[in-house]
Amino acid sequence: MTKSILVSTFILLCAVILESSILSNITFIYIVPDLVLICSIYFSLLNGKIVGETTGFISGILLDFITGIPFGFNCIFRTIIGYVGGIFAKNVIISGFILPMLCVGIGTIAKTLMVNLLGLLFPNVHIYIAGIISYDFLFEFIENVLLAPFVFKFLSFFRKSLAVRSVKDSIDND
């Protein structure tokens, strides 16, 4: 389990750097897709609730540290999304095409709702808050949903290192 979380943390760190340093500086990208959210959902669907909430928390801490938002802002909702995603770990086939898109779509909606709620608790912090009915949300939702199968496929190459159970055990149990 420790190896899985360490590998997941390294992948999340790479995704945070890619998202916050590289993709955010490309001028023709209107809204940056949330690669960290997609990775966290993958880890939670692969390994379950405990790893889901742990990687959600770690991704939140990394984002809080790099983006300068007060510590805990991203941790709260990413931990919840990771835990809820982990509940469905044995019920969702992550190697498909439609279910990863559906899971990431639901995760993006949940993220937006929780960010808007947390924005009420952090009134002095000027964060980007977009409602469900906005172009910003629509672009992020479409980007996340369309990228989900490709990110899931890419992360499946590291499945042996990421899985808490052995890959053979998870195939036999399915």
Mean pLDDT: 85
How many helices in DSSP terms?
8
Total discrete domains: 1
The CATH topology comes to: Arp2/3 complex 21 kDa subunit ARPC3
Largest sheet: none
What is the H/E string?
HHHHHHHH
Global geometry: globular
Membrane topology: Multi-pass membrane protein
Keywords: Cell membrane, Cell shape, Membrane, Transmembrane, Transmembrane helix
Organism: Treponema bryantii
InterPro entries: Cell_shape_determining_MreD
Can you describe what's shown?
- It is a multi-pass membrane protein.
- It is found in: Cell membrane.
- Keywords: Cell membrane, Cell shape, Membrane, Transmembrane, Transmembrane helix.
- The structure is a single chain.
- With 174 residues, the protein is mainly alpha-helical.
- It has one domain: Orthogonal Bundle (Arp2/3 complex 21 kDa subunit ARPC3).
- The chain contains eight helices and no strands.
- Helix 1 runs antiparallel to helix 2, helix 2 packs across helix 6 and helix 3 packs antiparallel against helix 4.
Summarize the structure.
It contains eight helices and no strands. By secondary structure, it is mainly alpha-helical.
Topology:
Elements: H1 2-22, H2 35-47, H3 49-67, H4 73-87, H5 98-121, H6 135-156, H7 159-162, H8 167-173
Task: Please tag this protein with its features.
single chain; globular; 174 residues; mainly alpha; Arp2/3 complex 21 kDa subunit ARPC3
